Amino acid sequence: MQDFRQPVDLARATRLLNHGPVTLITSAHGGRSNVMAASWAMPLDFVPPKVVVVIDAKTLTRQLVEASGVFGLQLPTRGFARHTLAVGSNAGVEIDKLAALQLETFAAQKIDVPMLEGCIAWFECKVIPDDSQRHDLILAEVVACYADSRVYSNNRWHFGDDHDMRTCHYVAGGTFFETGDTFEVEAAPVDSGKS
Length: 195
Hints:
Blueprint: E1 5-7, E2 23-29, E3 32-38, E4 41-45, E5 50-54, H1 60-68, E6 70-76, H2 81-89, H3 97-100, E7 105-107, E8 114-116, E9 119-127, E10 137-148, E11 152-153, E12 156-157, E13 168-172, E14 175-178
Antiparallel strand pairs: 1-10, 2-3, 2-6, 4-5, 5-10, 6-9, 7-8, 9-10, 11-12, 13-14
InterPro entries: Flavin_Rdtase-like_dom (IPR002563), Flavoredoxin (IPR052174), Split_barrel_FMN-bd (IPR012349)
Keywords: Flavoprotein
GO molecular function: FMN binding; oxidoreductase activity, acting on the CH-NH group of donors, NAD or NADP as acceptor
């Protein structure tokens, strides 16, 4: 099986998240691992690249991330939407979601967390400690990043005709929409005259 995962320049890693797709977070610590869906994930900074994710303090994922100090952040596709919904609809304390959903994983490069096959972008993240944290926000530095070269290269998404290879956005109640076609424009002229 051919591996389409190619490294992404860390200074450009946040471009993968700019369009706001749903994400999957993987975590592991002390022999336990988990995966959860997260619609609230966004880029925060460029160099070094940082991301913000929302992980409820009462979840197994949060416990594992706080214990290990790391997590994986992945972008699933439309073709992976059924699994994304299942991951987001079941609690990890009740079942081993990776095993129950027969999700294939591979080893991360720089952190000890399983990464998910079936996605098209992957971030390996180290938590930035924040003793004043009173919210469910987790800030992290991206220490490794790679993307599927069939849909991302030269720091740009290039989704083709295979709609199952597009990122998706979660609305609610099992409803998603897929990332649409791209288009380019030139900036409107700016009137430099004083008014």
